[in-house]
Amino acid sequence: xxxxxxxxxxxxxxxxxxxxxxxxxxxxxxxxxxxxxxxxxxxxxxxxxxxxxxxxxxxxxxxxxxxxxxxxxxxxxxxxxxxxxxxxxxxxxxxxxxxxxxxxxxxxxxxxxxxxxxxxxxxxxxxxxxxxxxxxxxxxxxxxxxxxxxxxxxxxxxxxxxxxxxxxxxxxxxxxxxxxxxxxxxxxxxxxxxxxxxxxx
Length: 201
What we know:
By secondary structure, the chain is mainly alpha-helical. It folds into two domains: 1-49, Arc Repressor Mutant, subunit A, CATH 1.10.10.60; 51-200, Tetracycline Repressor, domain 2, CATH 1.10.357. It is built from eleven helices and no strands. The protein has helices at residues 2-23, 30-37, 41-47, 51-74, 81-99, 101-110, 112-139, 149-163, 166-171, 176-191, 194-200. α7 (112-139) packs antiparallel against α8 (149-163). The N and C termini lie far apart (52 Å).
């Protein structure tokens, strides 16, 4: 019985996510979510009495996915530091591209408390994992030893927080993947040794 209920919950979240990412959650009604699944509003409300609960669960599912994938890459001893950076950038770029600007814009403007949760999440995950990545890179001679890693991590964090936003992305002609790639080229390549730059290209 629990498996059946979980399948229904997953179907609701997946359908809502697809519509929210495309149109923004403010333009999608509970009727539309239920209709897309061929279920009644009564069934929808049984699992999600409020649309806010759907929005909340989607956001925290995304954050869990990002955290799990970043940690998996950073802690993988079979990948060198430059490849770890490439994989993280690709994963983040694809994730943010899939989310869609309408959904991000709604979060920032209509659910500021959730946007704050995302900002705090970024801060924690970036600080912990990129510090590990830079420590590893410095030990292996990939990153220059004359650069303070704490200053760099904070600069990287503030860049991501201020650039990967709905306002910036809506005005940019670049995709999230391209934006992440440019940030890395500007910041990380300047921190790399000449030898590491060659392998990163």
